Amino acid sequence: MTPALEDLFAVLRFPSISTDSNHAADVRACANWYVAKFQSMGLAVELCETAKHPIVVAKNEPVAGRKTVLIYGHYDVQPVDPLELWDSEPFNPVIKDGKIWARGSTDNKGQHMAHLLGVEETLLEEGELPVNLIFLLEGEEEIGSPNLPGFLEERKEELACDIIAVSDTGMVAPGVPTLGYGLRGITCCEVKVTGPDKDLHSGVYGGAVANPATAAAQLIASLHDSEGRVAVAGFYDEVEDLADWEREMWSQVPGMDRQDVLEVTGSPDLFGEQGYSSAERLWGRPTCEVNGMWGGYQGEGSKTVLPAEAGFKLSCRLVPDQDPVVVLERVRKHLEAHTPIGVQIEFEAGHSGKAYVADPHSEEGKAAQAALEEVFGKAPVLIREGGSIPIIQDMKEILGADTLMLGLALPDCQIHSPNENFTVENFEAGIRLSRVLLKKLGTSS
Ligand code: BES
Ligand code: ZN
User: Fold this and answer.
1) Going by DSSP bridges, is the β-strand pair 178-183/381-385 parallel, antiparallel, or unpaired?
2) 445 — pLDDT class (breaks 50, 70, 90)
3) Which three-class secondary structure state does DSSP give residue 180?
4) Is the CB–ligand 1 distance for residue 187 below 6 Å?
5) Is residue 384 included in any domain, yes or no?
6) Does the pLDDT at position 444 exceed 90?
7) Cβ 191 under 6 angstroms from ligand 1
8) Which ligand is nearest to the CA of 405?
9) In a mutational test of the pocket of ligand 1, which residue from 141, 181, 354 has the highest number of ligand atoms less than 8 Å from its CB?
């Protein structure tokens, strides 16, 4: 195994699941691995404490007049359940069929490790970097980065930079270089539906009092109309129409046709807002999705119960100009107005973040496009992303810098799911890409 793969395997072995407090020590141990690695590369490194998981900041010796580039990544990962659906252990990485299989292999350890190792190679070969570099690795991205905005505010001057580079997004198809210039925002909530003050016999009382599970289903069903649009009043108020140039450009992006989407998702048919392609639905339109629902008996066989309680979790994906707080308030009002007789709801707001969009043709955007072209042998496609990395808009607002999203996550990498994987090919291409990118950014005007 190459030293680069050994380094990646070392970090993949830490079960750094940020949402699970049982894993707090693993998250910290993972952060400490990076501290030691950055030290060995000769960078000045600091392990910065937060109210929860630590942030790692590493820098080279700045030289006046050079561009400052901040590379952001996250070393925390999503939980692994359902564990029984994994073909190999999530924290015991293996290489099979040219892919590295492990939780975090793509999201995000593999992708940011490519940058780290590209920097290490450059330092070993050339003794210095073409830019002033700041690495910022956090351990809370998968729980909505609760402590990072405050940290950025506190260290605004120290973290000032000209441009930010992030590989934590998608590549539309193997071998198709992809520059992301936008992300959807997000706003989440949880809703508890309660009725009778105890579980009841569904024969003795069913039909005479409301069933919270039925009411939860009715509330969920009320969120969309028959055309696939979100039925919450005002939901689309701030949403701008997509520009013709963007729709035209996205229609040429490979990997987004009907057949591609059916294959990668394993769905029997496409679905969504009428009048939009899959790319437009994913990258340019807001949504409201159920992420979980519960209530009543879940065990084997039947149990004739009328449950006292049911619930569901929602997340809305947002586009530029939609305010997460305003949209969530509209959702809350909608749910209250649609609560069936005989039940009550408790609404709890979750984490949120704004959408992000930048100009892919800025000087730095052009440098990123040129780097992608040099490494992959063809011009990149320019896309916005369906997923969210809220801290990118926060960095824009607090540090004043735009972000180049150099996506290496392939459509079938299965991030957040069992059998997450990262191709060795993209890992190695990512190392070359980071090297070329810094060189081009260093000489861009
Ligand atoms: N890397 C993803 C985001 C992503 C994936 C963007 C693929 C574009 C393409 C990130 O780790 C993530 O999962 N973000 C969360 C948001 C967060 C607030 C929990 C998301 O999008 O659900
Ligand atoms: Zn993620």
Assistant:
1) parallel
2) confident
3) strand
4) no
5) yes
6) no
7) no
8) 1
9) 141
In a domain, 173, yes or no: yes
Q: Are residues 206 and 168 located together in one domain of the fold?
A: no
Partner residues linked to 310 by β-bridges: 193, 295
Per the document, the length of the chain is 445
User: Crossing angle for the helix pair 424-443 and 363-376, nearest 10 degrees?
Assistant: 140
Residue tagged 């909505």 (tokens): 144
* Residues 27, 211: Cα–Cα separation, whole Å: 42
Backbone angles phi, psi at 429, to 5 degrees: -65, -35
Q: Could you list the residue range(s) of the whole structural domain that residue 204 is in?
A: 185-239+286-353
186 Cβ closer than 6 Å to some ligand 1 atom = yes
Domain boundary among 331, 353, 375: 353
Q: What is the pLDDT of residues 217-237, one digit of tens each?
A: 999 999 999 999 999 999 999
Average pLDDT, the chain: 97
For residue 333, is it within any domain? yes
Whether 79 has a pLDDT exceeding 80, the answer reads yes
**Residue 97 scores a pLDDT above 90:** yes
**Residue type at position 246:** E
Q: Is 11 helix (H, G, I), strand (E, B) or coil?
A: helix
In contact, 412 and 97? CB cutoff 8 Å: no
